[in-house]
Amino acid sequence: MNTQKKLQLPWQALVKLPTGAGSRRTRLWPWHALTGLILIVVAYGLWYSTSLISYEWRWNRVPQYFAYQAEEAQRAADYARVEAIEVQGATARVTLAGDSGARQVLEVDQDSLRVAQGDDVAEGDAVGVTHHWAAGPLFWGLWTTLWISVLSGALGLLLGLATGLCRLSKNPTLRDLSTVYVELVRGTPLLVQIFIFYFFIGTVLNLSREFAGVAALALFTGAYVAEIVRAGVQSIVKGQNEAARSLGLTAPQAMRHVILPQAFKRVLPPLAGQFISLVKDTSLVSVIAITELTKSGREAITTSFSTFEIWFCVAALYLLINLPLSQIANRLERRLAQSD
């Protein structure tokens, strides 16, 4: 009976490779511990730095800039007399009777009641106030940042896809115009483009600041997306296009059904990075008086005097937007890699 001996490389005779999950965890835990230690040192450094300048932390002032109880005065609509007051728990129901016989019923908080039964009130007099929860400036700034990012990102993606394909076109005019657009936008700062678009183009065409801000961000994003698309398409071997054409597909059909799906898998990481940068670039539209997240943070600082707390919250909100984008891009990238 013949026995077969397994071939063993020299380095395998000297080193025994771990194959189990337990050995892998044993091998990685010191590095995770080192990461935790570095983060602790950084946190201590931040705390020690603030202690040197005697900064007093006031985190209790921050929640009101996300949500607060707004106070709304309930006023008489006309000259009238307080006909009746009915107390129902913490709410008071006030009935006002006018000279013409018209009645007005107002519900106010009992502890804010400013009239008594039989009192005369004039038009606009406050009978009491009601309280309700309202969104704070940081919440509205976050919402503005989100819708500006989504809208300008979608427009920039469409514009970048069209421009990237024009860069690869056989038509010299399309290539020249797309090249001029890409080089002009990439070669100038975004802040300058926002100023030009709002104060010059926006003034001539009577555009709103929101439209000007979204358009400037979309044009800026489109130029970078165009280069990403161009590089992705050119990375696909020419044999793919030739094979598609040999099967009877036209050039647009080959680009749509064969080239672009393969290129999308390769350009997904840089596209995700570009859209993450776009979210952060929305902070620049505050220079044309759009109250997005950064401008909301500055306004909150002027009333709360909690500089560090507000800026830490603003940074955390930007991180809250960008981390899911990064995770979605990573999952989509892995799923597309498995479909190869």
UniProtKB/TrEMBL annotation:
Family matches, as SUPFAM superfamilies: MetI-like (SSF161098)
Subcellular location per the Swiss-Prot or TrEMBL entry: Cell inner membrane; Cell membrane
Q: What is this protein called?
A: Putative glutamine transport system permease protein GlnP
Q: Which GO terms describe its cellular component?
A: ATP-binding cassette (ABC) transporter complex
Function according to Swiss-Prot or TrEMBL: Part of the binding-protein-dependent transport system for glutamine; probably responsible for the translocation of the substrate across the membrane.
Q: Which organism is it from?
A: Pseudomonas cavernae
The ABC transmembrane type-1 domain covers which part of the protein?
142-329
List residues traversing the bilayer: 28-47, 146-166, 187-205, 211-229
Taxonomic lineage: Bacteria, Pseudomonadati, Pseudomonadota, Gammaproteobacteria, Pseudomonadales
Task: Name the InterPro entries for this protein.
Answer: AA_ABC_transptr_permease_3TM, ArtM/GltK/GlnP/TcyL/YhdX-like, MetI-like, MetI-like_sf
